[in-house]
Write a structure and sequence with these properties.
single chain, alpha+beta, Heat Shock Protein 90, 5-stranded mixed beta sheet, 9 helices, 68% helix
Amino acid sequence: MRKQTLQFLYASLAAAVLLLLSIGVFTFRSLRSLIEQSDAIAHTNKVLFQTEEVISTMKDAEIGQRGFILTHDSSFLKPYVDATQYLGRQLKLVDSLTNFRPQVVQRQRVRRLFYFAQQRDAHIKQLLAASLEPNRPDYDLRLIALLNRGKATMDSARIVVDSLQQTEKLLLEERIHHKDQLSANTLGLFTLISLLAVLMFSLAFYLLIQEIRRRQNYERQLEKTVSDLLRTNQDLEQFTYVVSHHLQEPLRKLQTFSTRLVQKHAIELGDNARFLMERMGSTANQMQTLMADLLVYTGLGLHGDTTDFEVQDLAVVFQKTVENHEKQLSAAKAMVQFDKQSWPVLGEMEQLELLFSHLLQNSLKFVVENQRPHISVHTFVITGEQMPFATQSQHDERFVKIVFTDNGIGIDMQYQDKVFGLFQRLHTADNYPGTGVGLAVCKRIVKRHNGYIHLAATEVGAAFHIYLPLAN
């Protein structure tokens, strides 16, 4: 997928996520506002209900006192007493409901309602007391006067309650309208944002599917390319192996014919001819050595199966390698020091011997003039997490770290990658003979054993660090 398309896909996904977050925030705020409005509406309805209850209770008290005045039956006083006690609680409730409101007028009306309720209660008590004195000459006039004052107080209380209810009804209509408007806006905006989010997600999902298909096609093409490359590499190695093998016989014949020619016709040949024949024989020998090394290198690639690996003891491998080079070591008066700690690794004994044989030969070849070679091999056990070049899956595995050092001429760290290349030489063949295949063979052996090898920095000589998986 092109970079612009990927950027658009990421931007679409981010926008969709932001839209979903905004939907969540908006929905939360809208629901909270709707709940607040619903609570306010319920509060207003409660105020209306309680004020109506106040008037109804005052009426019950008035009916009770009238029944007592007419009949002088004390049973009529019970509704009056109950209404009086209930009225106090109702007035306190109305007061607490309106106490949270910012309207000053409503608070004033509640205070007036308190006043008229107290006045009405006082009038009823006066009427009840006056009704118990029927023999007074002004009995009728006094009752009528008290009844008129009670009616006036009751009418005033009704007026106050009507004003309270009228204001609450207006407030109720306003809140219901605001709630309906908020509900409509919330639903509309929520629907719009949801549609946009679905659209963005659909577009991102479509692009993601296209990218997955494109990657699948790319992976199939890559697998085919890798397969073709492996097959080509195998064919090339097979070709190199066959060619190198078939060149051995012509080289041997060339060496044989040149040797016989020099031996049988040395007198007839002049000095220049003998020199050229010797050079030809030397070149044939060098070519034969190169073909042998190349056969070893390509042979390692041809045998890719590692199921025949067995547990090998590194100490035994070191010991056998030193024994195989005992004559060379003695001739160079070299000192070899290696750990005899037994570390088990999976591998082939011949290839592991070849690995250390090449390293040993390099140390014996690249020596400082008039200095005795000193070679040391030390081993440690580390985890993959401590190892350079390790993959994430190898962090929990255990490896044997092999530090191979010498006191030779050393290798400049700027050539740390070049020295492991095939036919890569840092010196001329006249100064240091060789084919430039040895370290390439070492790298291929280590790689085949699922390990790593690299050149390490050191002040004196050369140092190679080798990492091989520890056998369980």
